[in-house]
Every structure is written in structure tokens, then in C-alpha cells.
# Entry
Amino acid sequence: MATIQSLQKNETAKFLLGLCLCWSLLVSCKAGNQNEQQQKKLPDLLIKKGTVHTSIGIDNYPNETYAIYLPTAYQPTINYPIYIFCDPQGAGAYPISKYKTLAEKYQVIIVGSNNSRNGININDGMGYIQHIIDDCDAKYAIDDSQVNICGFSGGAKVAMLYTAQTTDFHIKTNSLICAGATTNVEQAPTQMPILLFAGTEDMNYTDLLGFQRDAEKSANTYFSSLVEFNGKHEWPDSFTYEFAFLMNDKSANSQARAAAFIRSIQNKNYTNAVDEINMLEAAIQLLKKKTDTKEIQHVLDAEKANPHTKVLLAEKLNQLATEQAAKEYYNTQIGQKELSWWAVEVNKLNHPATINEQAMNKRLLGYLSLAGYSYSSRYINQNDLMNAKKMLDFYGQVDPTNKDQPYLSAIMFAKMSDRENTLMSLKKSIALGFNDKNKIFTEPAFQFIQKDESFREMIVNMK
# Structure
């Protein structure tokens, strides 16, 4: 009997010992998983803080990279807002370098896609954004509720379509910031802050204003704001772009930063009263929930009541109507009128009758240039080389110093196996500032001259 009891005690002890070992292993595995998850939030040892890194690889996507800037005070134990930028040329480092000071000020991570660019399939562009988000979420300490998508020109359209179609993803977009272009309102995300930047010399200026006007008609669906700035078709200057960071700022310093920014707006020198009104209206709309805007509201009301300002505002409305009519008319003439006719029109636009027409005429010239690029690219992609030649001649007439026109011409001539004109057009494009060696090397049309000594020498000597 004593033996049986002894055996039973031994079996019980073994069972308890085994249970303890299993629990120990379970705890150990859980701790290991936690450490692994925490490790994923630690930056790669090669990722130095406070530095613009131009090409970070994406796990599982060997042909995709992004530029990134981690603020100097970055710590893996703190979750940071993240801003993802889409540049139309796939120059991810450009907006990162432009806004890194703002990243330091607002303590955010900024990232720029090197793959999202004009001319790609829109679904590919949206995929590039998602891959960056997934990669950054795995490697860095980002706040999943503070993911903001930013784009310029074609990149703005990709950003807008991405945010509109990915609302069911586990990481939802917090805000959308678009500069220089937009889709129509029906393709825009709903119930999400949308901030638009419109350069007063941008060829898409009236389109951006039109989007804002349409969004305001459905204010309960589209939370859209627009900031105008003195500039052409380009990323806004950092002073203007600070609106985007202020709009999303949820830190303890949010109120103080908003108040300081309003003071800087009041002290800013403006070209005219209309520019001041645009900036004041944007500040009130975007910052009224963060700080007191009564003082600048008084300034705004007084400026709008000024008789001279009323005249300027009326002239602006008239010009916008004139511009829209001109764009519609020009659109019907593209492909119809001879180059000599376009030469006369371009000369008129380059010599405005009044100072007030200067910005409008620059926007119209930009519109014609964009049309030339779009039509030329489309016909080249369709191998309709006869119409491509016609559109490239038009493109060169309306925008003779644009580096993309001779580059597209080189592709067209390459598809004709015309070595001499291919090299001559490439040389002209490079002289005008084209400097994307990778784009040239990966262009399928240029394969027939890849081993050409003149071609290789030209590429090697590119700056």
C-alpha cells in the first residue's frame, strides 16, 4: 500500500513538474514573440536618424524602394505619425528633403516612394503605397491612426484614389494632402480631411478650385480645404506646406504652434490683398479649432470690405471664367490647327496685355504643355507613331524648353529604329535638364542602342 501511494505521489510530482515546464515554455515563447514584435519596431542599424536616406528596400518587393527621414529624437518606444509622399517623377527623396525641417518640428516620420510615378498603371501606384505602409509598420514605430498620404501632380491622383479605395484596410488613412492636381469629387475619399494646395500659376489651378467648389456642395461628405500659394506646378514651399502638419498636429504643443503660425501669417509680406485673403481664410478654416482666430477674422473682414480689394476679387472671378473658356477652346483645337497658328497663340500668351493676365497666361501655357505631354505619351504607348509625331511637334511649339518633349521624341525615334534622331533627341533632353539615368536604361525602346558607344558615352557624362 505504501508503495502504491509512493508511486502515486511520484506520478503526481512528474505531472506537476511537466505542467510547470510547459507553462515556462509558453511564457518563454510569449516573451520571445513580444521581443520579436518589439524588434520589428527598431530601425535598421543602417538607418541613421536625422538623415535623408534615399533608397530603402522593401521586404518581399526587391524592385521597390523608398526614401525616409526619421526625426533626430526618434525612439522605437514612441509611436510617430507618418507622412507618405508620391512624387510624379518617382523622386522620393525630393519632398523628403524639402520638408525634413517640418518633420523635426512636428516629430513625424516622412517617407517618399521611388516607384510611384507618372505613366504607370494606377493599381501599381496604389500597390506601391500599400507596400511602403506595410514595410514601415513592420520596421518603425509608427502610429497606425496617424498615416497621412501626400501627393503632387500625378502623384496626387494616385494618393487620392488610394485613400478612396482602401478604407477597409487594417491601417486606415488619417488625411489626404494633394498639390497640383486632383481627381473629380466622386473619386475622392469621403469622411476624411482633404487638404489641397494650388499654385496661382499652376495649369491645374482652376481644376483644384473646381474640386473645392464641388466638395463644399457636399460638406457633410467631403471635409476639404484649399490653400493657394504663389507658385507654379510644383511642391509648395515649406512655409505653405506647414498647414498640412498643423492640420494633423495632435501633440501637446498643437495650440502654441497654431498661434505662432498665425502670427507668422500676419507678419508675412504679400504680393497683393487677394494673396493675403487666401492665406487668412485657409488659416481660419484649418486652425480655428486649435487656437483663437478672432483677430485675423477681423483683419480678413476689413480687407474684404476695402473697395480696391473688391475690385481685385471681381477681376479674379472674371479671369477664372475667361481661363476656363480658353482651356475648353484650346482643347478643341489641339490636333486641328497648324503649328503656325499655335506659334501666334503662344506668342500672345507670352506677352499678356495687362499685368493681371500674367498668372492666367502662365497657367494656360502650362495646360497646353501638359496636353502635349499627355497626347504624345498616349500615342507613343499605342505605337501610333504618326499621331505621336504630330503631338510632339505641337508639344515642342507650346513648350520649347521642356526636357520631356525631346525625351519622348527619342522614344518615338527609337521605336522607328532611327539611331541618329534617337541620340540627337536624348542629347537635347539631357541639355535641358533630364538626368534620370535609370529611366533611360530601363526604357525598352532604347534596347537597340544599349551597346552603342555614343549612347553609353552620353549617359556616362550625364550630371
Residues 1-40 have pLDDT under 50 and may be disordered.
